[in-house]
Amino acid sequence: QLQLVESGGGLVQAGGSLRLSCAASGRTFSGYAMGWFRQAPGKEREFVATITWRGGSTYYAESVKGRFTISRTVYPQMMYLQMNSLKPEDTAVYYCATRYGTFDISARAYDYWGQGTQVTVSS
Question: What confidence tens digit (pLDDT) does each residue in 6-24 have?
Fold first, then answer.
């Protein structure tokens, strides 16, 4: 089945930038919307950003709007999250996910998940 692997996480100072990548294998992304979610210790998993399979429409959580940019490519089958002006409250494990159909802001709508990549923002 479809497999997703995140990479690009790490330690960065407040105000810095990171770019997360999500590589897909096993199946094509055709017809699949994709999204980024994050989860901090002791908190529920929350929506970050999502994008349609054609890449024509995007939607962001209010907390990251203007700072993060989601994008994807068909070849290679990749999704990215460019994170700028990072804040300590952005510290979390970031997960990529995909679902067949339109994008959705609810984690419950997604069937395929990566294992996550740690992002730590120091102050």
Answer: 999 999 999 999 999 999 8
